[in-house]
């Protein structure tokens, strides 16, 4: 790892379509300033039909970037186009972090690592349970299911309106994952130690169903990957019922750490000041 006192100028990006609302430049800009590093990280919007050309320009050096983050709708294509996607991203079929090394584009996915790092920070011991319930089977649930499984949770119940989507995840991630329709939610929550909302229920003021968390194990943890609002309706319900809650903002912050270290040579830390910067920005822009 390079010494933080060295003078080197690297440039990284976050790309998606659209990308102007990304908070990643705030996060990485904070760390660059905090660590006194020369370099940049900026939003770079790329239309889907131009993404392959962008990756080619990254590989041949024409883009001027040494790597970056990838978000919707480019994550699957990033994994396919990378020269060296790692095992995590290959199993997911999606990459969110790219870096250039020896003329090749490498890829990984840090979403799952960000998810468990957030739980470790804000509710240590969450992984002592053997059973988790995941609400939702969309793209956001993949990395979370993978990370929770890899952490050793033996049974992961995926509950979704369309049970076929949940079955696809069970097929992808193996026997630890079980698929259920929405009608089975109460049954699978009984005795579970971790509840994860990966849907958009409760986001931006949308309604969320009433959920009885009282049937979960004593000391169970409830978390939501949505972070606008910071305390979602689902988290508010769980808190009222006496359960520990973890908001989704930390996942955004912690998933950014590995990429920053790859591009700029120093491992940053997620601190209260950074969290407040993002909360303030959320308050300004919603």
Q: What is the general shape?
A: globular
Structural class: alpha/beta
Query: How would a crystallographer describe the biggest sheet?
Result: 6 strands, mixed
C-alpha-based Rg, rounded: 19 Å
* Number of DSSP strand runs: 12
| Poorly predicted segments | 1-6
Kindly report how far apart the N and C termini lie: 38 Å
Strand proportion, as a percent range, falls in 15-25%
Mean pLDDT: 94
Pattern of helices and strands: EHEHEHEHEEHEHEHEHEEHEHHH
Spatial order of the strands forming the largest sheet: 2-1-3-5-6-4
What portion of residues is helical? 25-40%
Number of helices: 12
Task: Please describe what this structure looks like.
The protein is an alpha/beta fold. The protein is built from twelve helices and twelve strands. The strands form two sheets. It has a six-stranded mixed beta sheet with strand order 2-1-3-5-6-4, sandwiched between helices. Strands 9-8-7-10-11-12 form a six-stranded parallel beta sheet, with helices on both faces. It starts with 9 loop residues before the first strand and ends with a helix. The relative contact order is 0.14. Mean pLDDT is 94; it is low at 1-6.
């Amino acid at each position: 790892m390079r010494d933080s006192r060295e003078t080197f100028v690297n440039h990284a990006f976050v790309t998606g379509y659209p990308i102007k609302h990304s908070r990643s430049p705030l996060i990485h800009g904070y760390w660059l300033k905090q660590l006194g590093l020369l370099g940049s990280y900026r939003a770079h919007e790329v239309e889907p039909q131009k993404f392959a050309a962008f990756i080619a320009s990254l590989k041949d050096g024409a883009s001027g970037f040494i790597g970056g983050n990838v978000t919707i709708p480019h994550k699957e294509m990033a994994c396919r186009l990378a020269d060296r996607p790692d095992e995590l991203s290959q199993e997911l079929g999606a990459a969110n972090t790219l870096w250039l090394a020896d003329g090749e584009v490498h890829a990984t996915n840090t979403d799952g690592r960000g998810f468990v790092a957030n739980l470790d920070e804000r509710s240590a011991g969450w992984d002592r349970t053997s059973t988790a319930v995941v609400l939702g089977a969309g793209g956001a649930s993949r990395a979370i299911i993978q990370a929770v499984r890899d952490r050793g949770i033996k049974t992961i119940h995926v509950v979704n309106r369309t049970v076929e989507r949940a079955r696809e995840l069970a097929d992808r991630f193996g026997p630890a994952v079980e698929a259920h329709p929405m009608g089975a939610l109460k049954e699978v929550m009984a005795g579970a130690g971790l509840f994860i909302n990966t849907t958009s229920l409760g986001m931006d003021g949308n309604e969320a169903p009433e959920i009885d968390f009282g049937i979960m194990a004593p000391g169970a943890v409830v978390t939501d990957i949505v972070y606008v609002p910071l305390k979602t309706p689902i988290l508010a319900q769980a808190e009222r019922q006496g359960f520990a809650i973890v908001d989704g903002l930390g996942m955004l912050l912690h998933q950014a750490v590995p990429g920053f270290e790859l591009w700029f040579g120093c491992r940053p830390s997620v601190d209260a000041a950074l969290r407040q910067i993002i909360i303030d920005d959320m308050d300004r822009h919603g």
